[in-house]
Amino acid sequence: MNDDQLLRYSRHILLDEVGIEGQQHLVDAHVLVVGAGGLGSPVALYLAASGVGHITIADHDVVDLTNLQRQIAHTTARVGQSKVASASQAMLALNPEVRVTALPSQLDAAQLDALVPTMQVVVDCCDNFATRQAVNAACVKHQVPLVSGAAIRMDGQLAVYDARDDKSPCYACIFPPDHAPEEVRCATMGVLAPLVGVIGTLQAMETVKLITGIGSGLTGRLQMLDGRGMEWSDVRLQRNPGCPVCGGHHGV
User: Fold this and answer.
1) Which of 7, 47, 128, 186 shows a CA-CA span of 20 to 30 A to 200?
2) Catalytic machinery residues
């Protein structure tokens, strides 16, 4: 790292758990963020601020006025612009050293199959069940950890699925692909603005921890937040040996 980087990331470097070596891991990392909305905004901004060297962000949507209540990577002036272009501007304004690849599309299986093997971590910030399943399948296939978050109304959840760990379930173990839930969207259900910030920020934190190897992660656990009373529930997750996605990728 050069002198400017040592200064920019000095508060990380001062941490015994991170130091120069950990920060270099962040600078060298490539992370895929799927979704540039309420969750993707804080994820993208905090990963850029943390110095993740290459961030690919994918979203097919454009910025709408109704997004601005919670999607903090976007601005009123960028209404009508693609979300990934808007998020890229925000990330580069915060940290011009970061390389940002903006993909204005909803990723399909073929695109994920090409992208995921090049990543250290994938962060799922989308609100589409089919996309979540496709992202999970690619992460299992290529043994890349997946940081998953969701938020609606005043309820949030967070989990890490790591196919490198034989004991870790995958997303499909917990939410089977053939049992699609009724789609719930902010447009019809509502969501409290800071809630997506809480969950997205924690997704960014788990991503940084995975890259640097610090602390204990959320692998095998589902954390759920009831924002009404600020109560957290922590549920231990079990791998499903018969899972149609990861069953053949683990020793049983």
Assistant:
1) 7
2) 186
